[in-house]
Structures are given as C-alpha cells and as structure tokens.
Amino acid sequence: MSKSEISIEDVLSGQIKMEYVDQLELLKENLSSNSFLNNKTNKKEIIKLVDNLIDLMPVELRTARFIVREQELYLKKAKDEAEEILSKADQESSRLISESFVLQEAVVEANALVKQAEQEAILNRASVEDKLDNKLKDIQSKIDELSQIIEREKSNLRQPRKIIDPE
What residue spans define the domains of the chain? Predict the structure, then answer.
C-alpha cells in the first residue's frame, strides 16, 4: 500500500499503522530496557532512528509543528506587548491622576484667593464709601456756612449804610 492509498479512516481505526508510528513503538520498547541505554552504539542508533522518524513525518506534520512553534512565539510576543501596553497605561493613568490632583488643588487654592480678594474688595469699598461720606459732609457743611455768609452779606447790602459821625 502506498502513501496515497492510505485513508485517515484506516489509520484512525487502527487497521493501518504508519511506518513512523511503528518505529516509535519499537524505540519505546528498546528504551524501556536499561541495557539498551548502556551501550554507546545504541545512542547512535537512537539518533539515527529519530532522524529517520523526522524524515518519515509528512511535510504537513513538520509544517504544523513549525506553525505551532511560531504561534507560541507570536503569542508570547503579543502577551509581552500587551503587558507593556498595560504598564504604560498604568503609568499614564497614574500621571493623569496626579496631574488631576494638582489641578484640583490649584483650583481650590485659586478659589480661596478669589474669595479672599472679594472680601478685601468689599472692605476697601466700605472704607472708601465711609471716607467719601465724611468728605461730602464736610463739603456740605462748608457750603452751608458759605451760603449763610452770602445770605448775611446780601442782607447787609440791602440795609442802608450807617454813617458814623466824625468827631
């Protein structure tokens, strides 16, 4: 039977064993005996048998093995990149939170300064208004005095003049 005549159903049912599976079973039996490992020539036989098994493997199986290795490397690389992204995200999050706290503290301090300035402005305005009221009262009293003087002098003008006799 050639390789092209072997169907997957025959292999799965156990009716046909593939050549490399047979060689693996033979290697397993030989390795189970300790005497097989004690001989240095057997080491060469094992290496030769493994090389033959690799050669007997279908190209698809070797390709699949290569793909699995590449997949593992790709997944490891993706996992490393994901961990790096998460690490950077954590750092950025911490930085933004820190900046947010600084900003909040600055806003609180700015609000306190604005409130203090408003209170000082209210006090200054009250003081200026009081001083202005006092000055206006002073001016008003001086105007009233001047008005009285003017009225008195006007009334004096309308009075006949007293002539004093010369002696």
Answer: 8-57
